[in-house]
Amino acid sequence: MDKLNGTTLLEMLESGNNNLNNHQSEINALNVFPVPDGDTGTNMSLTSSNGIAEAVKSGSKSLPVVAKTFSRGLLMGARGNSGVILSQIFRGFSKEVQSLDELSVRDLSNAFLSGSKMAYKAVMRPVEGTILTVVRESTEQADAYLNENPEATLVDYMDTLCAAAKVSLDHTPELLPVLKEARVVDSGGSGLLCVFEGFKAYLHGNPVRSEKEGGQKTSGTAVQESGYCVEFIVNLSERGAVQYNDDKVRSVLEKLGNELTLIRDDNTVKVKINTRLPGDVLNQGQRYGEFEEVQVYGLSKQARPSIFDVRKEAPAVQEEKEYGIITVAAGDGLKKLFTDYRADVVVSGGQTMNPSTEDFVSAISALNARHVFILPNNSNIIMAAKQAAEVSEGKDVIVIETKSIPQGLSACMAFNPEGDTETNLNAMSEAVASVKTGQVTYSIKDTVVEGREIHEGDFMGLLEKDIVLTDPDKVTATKRLLDEICDEDTEIITLIKGEDVTEEEFEAVQAYIEETFEVDLDAEDGGQPVYSFIIGAE
Which part of the chain is CATH 3.30.70.1150? Predict the structure, then answer.
């Protein structure tokens, strides 16, 4: 194959997507911090799959259209920082090929170089030892190889690109000490290498097939307590309604887990399943339409009410108003709390399921306000929020970089509907800066972080981003964390209870605060997953 046209480019992209999907669990396992989080592999897989779905939906064989629709799908489906960076790589790729009907090996190299530059531009403070390093070093080295070997083929180029990406990925622990200590390579870079290796397999004539469709047995057939319960409601697209086959979908899902419930009601499909591969399950649902609601929680934790019981209605478009606030939270109590504190739209999500760019775009459109403040409340959601702000035309969308729930709540309380935009931005930003955040969660594996030995099942106390303590007891860990957070200047403590906390545990922590600190206490039942307690100190 001397050149790529629209058809072969799409087939190559599908091979890369399949290879990424097949390895997402391995990528997830590379996460440095032992906190149950959004998972790099799952985020990249969902992002990439959305890109493929859009490219296929276009039905076009034109190379510029395939590249553009794939890029657009990635952009709108981007989840987490890794997903956003992946979308930016192919945004640059797409821009480079818009005037071409075919791609020569030189064109392909130029497109990847453009993608690398676009990704770096999208990140305000690029960090080396990440997916950014892998894409830059590999594309530059492959381009240098091409300059030295002008007769090289597409296969030669992709072989060189993959080899360079592997060397770069293996070197990431030398650039980021936290990777070296945990004895892992960068998870985002690993995901990108999987995409490149899928491209390479296609050019060698052995395109990667999706394991969940190829009849290969997966570990999802024997789910244990370490797995997840996944529920979703998906509204079938026009194409999805035609392609959907109940028996086929049931057969695929049964290979991914057990305890399957599958219901189709007109153009709506509801799924509930226990699985070790939540990303694979969600990928299946996303093939046929848009998610209306998603819920994922660990089987070892307390079960939640099924989303089938109370179906969420699509938000009605409101009359245009001057200001609106969009925030992110998981847990009914937290959602109500944000609503009470003037938030107009609460996007469902957080640490375990990062919202996509499109989730924010939909919320912005439904809100119908001239000036919109977005509070992501998680560092891994900020980039998707900013990307949504960029693509939302005709709106003044301002992302305040809240990295925790207490920061988001403080920003909401500082908002003044009578003030102007700049005054509100300054007041909300000052409120965010005045809050210290503590969180208590559990470790999902044995590891060492910054010299601290952590055992699976231990409760960890996090002060901002740092793990400052571990303890086998949840309440003791919370008390110790309060001692770390609070000082003589602390006046207010907000204590938010998670879904796994009993009333006795909640009362014990409240009593400790009242006995130990001279502060005003605001205790709330947030019902959030992952974090047993969230603490805000001001």
Answer: 219-298
